Amino acid sequence: MRILVVEDEKRIADFLSRGLESGGYAVDVANTGGSAAEMVHATEYDLIILDLGLPDMDGLEVLKKIRNRKVSPPVLILSARDAVDDRVKGLEGGADDYLVKPFAFVELLARVRVLLRRGQPLPERLQVADLSLDCIRRKVTRGGTNIELAPKEFSILEYLMRNRGRPLSRTMIVEHVWDMDYDGLTNIVDVYIRHLRSKIDDRFPEKMIHTVRGIGYMLETSDRHTDRDANS
Fold this sequence. Notes:
CATH architecture of the largest domain: 3-Layer(aba) Sandwich
Oligomer: single chain
Structural class: alpha/beta
Largest sheet: 5 strands, parallel
């Protein structure tokens, strides 16, 4: 998913960009309202993080330009303006959320995830090649064979399948499945991936769970994974 950060303070923009990228998101940065409007017009973003104190125009004007488009992404205002009136103006102007500076990045990330999830219907059944996952009955089959998974294994597989072809970092998996912060030391994700591979991949010639060096893991069929590597 691609996020646009509209922030004129380079230190904050760099901090946000690094943090969001480490969470697996693609990030663009605009340091003026004018450049933000141009980028929104040229690129389809999944989310916009918007500062109000921009050098060339008020952030609320940028928000208005974003909302005038036929299709506009969720907008999270990130501003030092902490008065109630400012928050009300931002939300009434079309923002989906409002976070006051200074802020804790973990809270920002949680709000980002909520906004990205909001309004996205989730299918009850996921299918990748011969691997099938029933989200309601919580059943998994591959090649017509039932596969018994522990609850955390099921949650990880569901997360991988919903993000097919997208590399997921260990941080993202821990925060999604365990709803906790990743401390950078635990190998719990690697342990559970080994368990999943033993049940999902080991008995089948087609391997689906791939290691993405330096990032984490990705679920994809081998032919598409090979094509992706060849084109990268």
